[in-house]
Amino acid sequence: MTRDIPPFEWKYLFLPEDADSAPASRLAGACKTALWLGVSILVGLGLDRLC
């Protein structure tokens, strides 16, 4: 049983997901999580420096 994996697209990293979104590979999901976690940390640090 093979699973059809769609080709990787960079816009996947920035688009919101919901139950209707096409599933991506685990690696793409991990990259998206790491990207947004890093962005959140950088924004948090930046706001901390402003206050």
Give an account of the 3D structure.
With 51 residues, the chain is mainly alpha-helical. It has one domain (10-49). It is built from one helix and no strands. The chain has one helix at 26-50. The chain is elongated and about 50 Å long. The chain starts with 25 loop residues before the first helix and ends with a helix. 0% of the residues are buried.
In brief:
Helices cover 49% and strands 0% of the residues.
Itemize the secondary structure elements and their pairings:
Layout lengths: L25 H25 L1
User: What value does the Rg take, in angstroms?
Assistant: 15 Å
Number of helices: 1
Q: What is the residue-mean pLDDT, rounded to a whole number?
A: 81
Described by strand count, sense and barrel closure, the largest sheet is: none
Structural class call reads: mainly alpha
Regions with pLDDT < 50 over 5+ consecutive residues? none
Distance between the termini: 55 Å
Name the beta content range.
under 5%
Quantity of strands, as a count: 0
* Share of residues in helices: 40-55%
- Total domain count: 1
Q: Secondary-structure element sequence?
A: H
Overall 3D geometry?
A: elongated
Keywords:
51 residues, mainly alpha, 1 helix, 49% helix
